[in-house]
Specification:
Four copies of one chain form a homotetramer. Chain A is an alpha/beta fold and 337 residues long. Chain A contains 13 helices and twelve strands.
């Protein structure tokens, strides 16, 4: 029997050839931890990419990048405004609470897991400024969102401005930052620090990496504390050069953008076939469909693997390595429902 | 100019060919996190190795393995007896305190970072059994120790028995467990669960792996909690199959023992040349030498790279991939001092 | 100018004479911490009251009692179901997160801050039973609620049964437990352990005490851990006899019930005058009124002090020592609006 | 049978009349938490006492005062240098680790629990300035020490200067600060902020209070965070006016100094009788004696209650209310050994 055609998660994707080649090339004796020559190149590479001097720290998961950022921006007694469908709220098993030593997530709603300035203002307005209530100290958004929507630079900047006025640190979970940039065609700086973002979790694993993500700090004031926290969290790998190698390979020749574009295009192809079935616009590499149980069964019978997403919905995720023939087949199958 | 001949840390060693091959072989789409076919084989593989049903969880660092074990064995208000030179005390930046939510390390002395039953009894005897004092709840030892000594099965069993009588959980930091087993030629079970060990950090990275270590739980009662803690620590990698692949490659054909033997033999060769200069017996892959500043300078001038270790001492660490010619050259250089 | 007539919080009430007398009587040398003769009587006194052997620990605040209970019932990686208006969620500045080391509060709605079995089932049903999501481990309700409603023994028992079936520990915040028991006229055991409650924060301060609350554990399995946590939280007072004295004085001759009845009756008197203005039924010592800004201004002009409670509402709280003349005057003023 | 004559702890002492009178006087309705008129006077009263604008926060235990101070001065990933016999290390059940979220205590030795600049420099010199080791961030000393020795203003200033040069925050556990000031006859400011102390736990309970201690912050930068931490620790009592009342009563007319002098003088009387038996000089209200088991038995047979303190030593503690006849009787009994 043929293997299933997998559209259930970009986490399941393979590692792209450039990354594999870089791992092989990095396989020689070198200084341990982050003292090696490859790790030493990260700050420079990302400063160049973002057009600003930044601090870039490798870690092995997006959860770690997110939570180191949150621990930098929010004290244990503070609150972090985020969407109720945010990954940090629903899919990290309380890692933000662990890393921040007990900060509270302050939840807002909004279509497609997207946070608006109005929603932030509404939730912060309910909080009395006294010692009995957890005070908001940070905002975290995900771009592209968990539902595949993309914030534009202007939308991010509006939130960034609000953060400044409310005294909130501003974190962006960029597990699919590449997909957002690829979609928008903008400069990475326009979608981050120029729009007021203080810390960015820049994802590589869903986009063709093996085990390396990067936390970007757009200022230096949290660098020292974050280095200690990374070590203390067991995230300072002794052969860190293999993380740096992956990341540098993804930056080289804009592999990260090429991969993200491929994933976005595959999703767009599915979206085109889905028509009225789309629950939300498809702006990155996730497609949410309205389907009946019979229809999902029919798709599965044809060999497609994906998640049900609540009653009457299915989630399809494409990746950098989605097989064009499988994408076409799925598009056809959707159109034929 | 020739590259330095590196004897400063097994953390700096390369990745062995079997592990690299396994990474390449694992590079296809599969289920995310630890739901893949390779990860699913870990429990079985280690149960077979240890002669007992065990739980085996991959993580990316020894620090994480150690601290997940300690969090399982010790509550936030408890104490962990360990050597004052233990890695968990001096080289993990407070990770045990982070993962356990504030447990206290209760320090003992002892030559070569080795803990004796007498030392454990002495420190626990100073603690009043009342609510004002942190009560000991676990013992952690390192085998081979941070100074390259090896506990025999009998020595471990004596500590294990004491742990039972004192109500302490028993953790072994086995960053160099392979070197200890290779040295002793014993069954891995004899050096662990049969001697009363509850949790073992089984190291692979120093021994030829890239980024995968294993936490072995010799009972099932802490499994659920530890799975949550691993996730929450940001250590549940989305492409976990690449961790499992490394580990299985090391077990296959006893690569782990072959590599450890190579490192031990290289160290033994250096020890043979060192004679009276040895600070401690060489039982694994670390050699501590008495040397003058002039002598360390002379060794460095010949291209050897290593750490000074306090005044008048130097540390030489061999690895699975220590170049035999470099080892010979270093042995000769030591003999010629 | 006359002092304001205070209806803004039972926290502002005076200390009742029996408690003051007990403090004076306790003022002699005795053993420190909780080793004194008065503290030693607590377990017996509360076991008698509840008709079951219990563990009773004094602490100085309801927040501490609540959070020690939650830390006993929920691990750091677990979740606590509670109402979104619960004191532990909105008025303890993240103390639950601090004491539990980062557990997550899982919020439900419901009129008058009351939690129903349906609401508990609805929120737990949304949580996938996998390692990515915080799993519910405890339920916490407040009786009387933050809005002055009272759960009956049957209502509590329905929740208790659900907790058993879902594997949740069951905590009751009884800051106004006395008011609930006084209202219901039931046995304290019927409203707690017989209905499945595992831990009860039994409040005395709002009800005439000075600085002593009690945490009741209806089983012994969490006693040791809780004693360590209390000490570690800085809540083991060295002259603990003065806490025990307050509590015993409140139990003696059912002062706690007498005081609670007085507060409830004062609230009932106000409720009688309020008629259609009542936002919720008045079942304990809190009265929520629908009022216009002009009406609240009018009441304040007459010397009454109280909180606005959102737009168009006012909160009036009575206490054991509410002056009957002031209550009559307020009732008349309300009726005259 | 007559009650024992208690010399085992100043924690067991009674509450002095001024404090009791103040509690009675404070027993009227007032605003809750720390919003009352008495609490509002604390900053002013202590600013006057210390000759500098300070922040003064009431708490209920010395452990809480200590740990709030440490949490202000040391991040979770930092270290706190203290004596190995310090109360924060041996008698607070890990409260510093709880409040700081896992900071590590870095222990030094020294006679009579006294820390010297040399000892601080020695321990900090062993710590590599890299991310693998917990970096020292604060120093905590106890004055008078746990063994009844007193640091002079010059000794504190030498440590304060060292703290500045090493970048350490400086905390003083002043559970017996009154005894130290009484002994030295110096200005409280000379023993604290003028000598570089950043935060002082100012004890009142051992010295005649019931349940109120004060945390003094000599700068304003940690005030906000500390207020949140106090609330979050369950230490913001709802009837806080009864804590403020105690403290103000102790300051009024220098009751705190009068009480401390009485305790010191009683200890001096015992010291005078002890001669060569003294283990350490008696500078505050603690007396450590060399005694044989037979001698301790003899003293106990005469009705004196005290702690054995390791083999061959006994600890006698006097208090503000030590009965002069009992002191004389004990002095005579010691002399007669």
């Amino acid at each position: 029997m043929a293997a299933a055609m997998r559209f259930f998660s970009d986490n399941a994707a393979a590692v792209c050839p450039e990354v594999m080649a870089a791992l092989l090339a990095a396989n020689r004796i070198d200084t341990a931890y982050d003292g090696d020559a490859l790790s030493a190149r990260l700050n420079g590479a990302f400063s160049h990419l973002f057009g600003k001097e930044v601090e870039a720290l490798w870690v092995t998961t997006g959860t770690t990048a997110n939570c180191l950022a949150l621990a930098a921006l929010c004290p244990p007694y503070g609150g972090i405004v985020c969407h109720r469908d945010a990954h940090i709220q629903v899919d990290e098993c309380g890692a933000p609470e662990f890393y921040t030593h007990g900060a509270k997530l302050l939840l807002v709603g909004g279509e497609g897991a997207k946070v608006t300035p109005d929603a932030v203002e509404a939730v912060t307005a309910t909080i009395r400024n006294d010692v009995h209530q957890v005070q908001p100290r940070a905002l975290s958004i995900t771009n592209a969102t968990e539902y595949g929507l993309v914030y534009s630079p202007a939308e991010v900047a509006a939130l960034g401005e609000l953060c400044r006025s409310l005294g909130l640190g501003f974190h962006m979970d960029g597990a699919r930052f590449a997909n957002a940039v690829a979609r928008l065609g903008c400069h990475p700086g326009d979608l981050s620090w120029r729009a007021g973002v203080d810390a960015l979790s820049f994802g590589f694993v869903k986009n063709g990496g093996m085990s390396a993500e990067v936390l970007i700090l757009f200022g230096s004031e949290h660098r020292q504390a974050t280095l200690y926290r990374r070590k203390r969290a067991g995230q300072l790998l002794s052969k860190g050069r293999f993380l740096a190698a992956q990341i540098l390979a993804m930056l080289e020749g804009d592999v990260w953008l090429r991969n993200a574009r491929a994933a976005n295009e595959a999703a767009a192809r599915l979206a085109g076939a889905a028509g009225d079935r789309l629950v939300l616009p498809v702006e990155a590499n996730e497609v949410f469909l309205k389907v009946t149980p019979e229809e999902t069964a029919a798709l599965r019978a044809k060999g497609f693997d994906f998640y049900d997403w609540g009653p009457g919905e299915a989630r399809l995720v494409t990746a950098w390595d989605s097989d064009p023939r499988e994408v076409e087949a799925l598009a056809a199958a959707i159109a034929a429902l």
